[in-house]
Specification:
The chain is of the alpha/beta class and about 150 residues long. Helix content is about 30%, strand content about 25%. The strands form two sheets. Strands 1, 2, 3, 4, 5 and 9 form a six-stranded mixed beta sheet that branches. A three-stranded antiparallel beta sheet has the order 6-7-8, with no helix packed on it. A hairpin with a 4-residue loop joins strand 7 and strand 8. Helix 2 crosses helix 3. The longest helix is centred in the middle third of the chain and has 15 residues. It starts with 7 loop residues before the first helix and ends with a strand.
Length: about 150
């Protein structure tokens, strides 16, 4: 995993944000030391563990996820309000039936949404490949910024 020099990541993000993109969606291999992230996999799993057999699991999971994202907004003097997510592979869980494009779209309009080290992104698709999943979802309409 690549570690960025002290402010490199925030400076690159700040340059990107000067273009005032409609969606401020960023894929990054890691975070610099000044940014804080939330382990969304842990938080969401903990939140839904009592509802796993509910026929309403997808709606319950989306409500919890939106609440987690809202309370995870942090402020940074260089990049402004942001949400940084780690361990977000749970969002691909088929039983949750999450519409990730819609969720990422809504949360990256008013805040910078940083998705940390969970797969490979190009400017059209995100690819998650691990021992549990091999999936791709389209991100082209969100026009992400990909830090290498």
């Amino acid at each position: 995993m690549r570690k960025f020099p002290l402010c490199y990541m925030r400076d690159k993000i700040a340059q990107y944000l000067k273009y005032d993109p409609r969606n401020k969606l960023i894929f990054a291999p890691s975070l610099d030391q000044y940014l804080r992230s939330v382990d969304v996999g842990f938080e969401l799993a903990k939140s839904i563990e009592g509802d796993l057999s509910s026929p309403h699991l997808p709606m319950i999971a989306e409500d919890y996820l939106n609440a987690i994202l809202r309370r995870s907004i942090k402020e940074d003097p260089i990049i402004g309000d942001y949400i940084a997510l780690e361990n977000w592979g749970i969002l691909f869980e088929p039983a949750l039936k999450l519409n990730l494009v819609s969720i990422f779209d809504s949360h990256s309009k008013s805040n910078t949404l940083i998705l940390v080290n969970c797969g490979q992104a190009d400017y059209e698709n995100f690819h998650l490949v691990n021992k549990h999943f091999n999936t791709t979802f389209p991100i082209g309409n969100l026009h992400p910024y990909i830090l290498q």
